Amino acid sequence: MKLITKKILNLESMMFFVYLVFLSSVSGSMFPPLENTCSGSYCHIMYRNYGFSEKKAPKLLEFHFTSCDDLKVLQLMPNLRTLELEFCTNEHINKINPRSIPNLSTLQLRRGNLSGLNDEHFAKWPDIKVLDLGGNSIATVTNETFYGVPHLSLLALPGNDIQILPQGIFETLPELLHLDLSGNRISNLEGSIFSGNPKLEMLLLNRNPLTSISPSALISLANLRLLDLSNCGPLSALTLPGAHSIILDNSGLKSLEIEGSVFKLSAKKNQITNIRLHYKSSLTELDLQNNSLSTYDIPRLLMGMWRLQHLDLSNNLIHDFPAAGSDNTSELFLLPNLKFLNLSGNFLKRLHYDSPIPWARLTHLDLSFSGLFFLQSSTIESAFNLEALYIQGNRLRYVPPTTFQQSHPGFKEVALYDNIYTPEAYKKATMFFRDIKVNVIEKSQCEAQSNDSLKDVCANFINKAQVGPTNRNSLKEKSDDFNEEHQNDSPSNNSDNETSLHFINKSPKDPSNKTSLNEKVDNSKEKPLNDPRSNENSTEALPDFANKSQIFNKQVAFRNDMTRLAWPEVNGEPISVWTLVLIVALSLSLGINVILIKILCRYSGRHIVPQATPQSSLETIFIHNLIPAEDIRD
After folding, report:
1. CA-to-CA separations, 133 to 172, 207, 221, 571, 616, in angstroms, rounded
2. Per-residue confidence (pLDDT) for residue 117, from 0 to 100
3. pTM higher than the cut 0.70
4. Does residue 312 form part of some domain?
């Protein structure tokens, strides 16, 4: 009996072994190897748990997975170099076995919820060189978070909630070249926080509420190539070391000092009135648009910029672009390499021919909305390399096409509208430019692109003209000079601000009306209410105004009656055209969404694996799930 029982047990164990072998063979045939799913050295799997055989994929070097639910697949990639994961937590990261991917050099964890980083958080990958932790809601870091990764060259922490950078947090990263801290909640940089990163070349601090930066915080960065402090602040006063490119846009700056050399400087949309550059000769591009610089700041600022090629001073408080030698100093005020010049939105009256502008080298000139009443033809004739000219929104009367009849082989674009040309002169000039294959920008094109931007620019001009900086010549002196020189062009009883604002607000409804709205307001402010002349003028104009008002009211009433006949009413009020359009659009959108939801439910979980291997993880192309699985197999 015992012998029979023993034989039965042996038979059962043998059958169980055969059953296991059968299951393993079946599972091996059911789950394909990873190499078949991921072609070449690159693989991207989207939103689905896949089963793979246990066969390893030694050729796979870069793997992108949009989920952290099942990371056992990483054990099949012994030679993996780049790993990108999304929607991970710290628990998922702790489960990764570093021995399964010993050659990992790039780790990208995006759009997850890491919340906080502890000491030596990534020390189990000591050879890692690139670490991207963007958009993970990281709020806290310690001074030892990045211990154990001494070879790190790129560290990206954008779009998190970091408020405080502990002292010494980056001291253990001597090879760091690129540091991205943009889009956080950092309010100040204290001490020598970057003293352990002498090789740092790119530092991105934009979109942080920075209000103070210690002078010693950036002084150790001798190799800095890009410093981005845009959309920070307000940083009222700032002292910076040198860098190849510095971006300070929209940071509330009033005073700026750069102690080192800089090649490209952008500080637009600030309130800068004082700027000091220690090494001007290295600068090639300077963008200071939308600041508060005046005429007297220009020579002191630009003198010595021998290599400057791009200059943007638009929307400042410049009344005159000074001529060479106007500062009465021994140094020449010259810009011999200047090619791009933008002076639009200032308060210029004329542009001196003996200014430091190298007309022969100039390719782009923008003088739009600057109050110009005269532009010498010799200046344009000398600019034979000119490619684009924008002189719209001024007080120019006539630009003869003969000015451009000389050799301008590269001339491509011109804008002439919103001046006080005669219709015949404007038509003749535009026809001439179109005949020589030059693009003529019309006012209707600009209004179609951005109808509100022009209003904002004009409002900005008005505010600057009315306020203006202190210790400057008033606009009255500029207006008086213009009236003395051009009595025939404007009435003798112009108000103080009439000349400076005449070019801004011309009534679009009445082209023949040469008096702007601002002039009418200013003239009305000059006359007191008890002035008999004012009463006489108002009495004479009253009947005409009353008749026009009555006609206008009748037109409005007639239009309302027609509207009630044409459209249905709700609570006694007619439904507007836009309301009907909105109802139709919402109905169509609802129908389309229903169709798309059905399609997505039908094909959910399917994907395509890219066949071509991208050059880097930053060039990964995500492919949506809208193709049936049958087509994929074929």
Report:
1. 18, 17, 23, 56, 17
2. 92
3. no
4. no
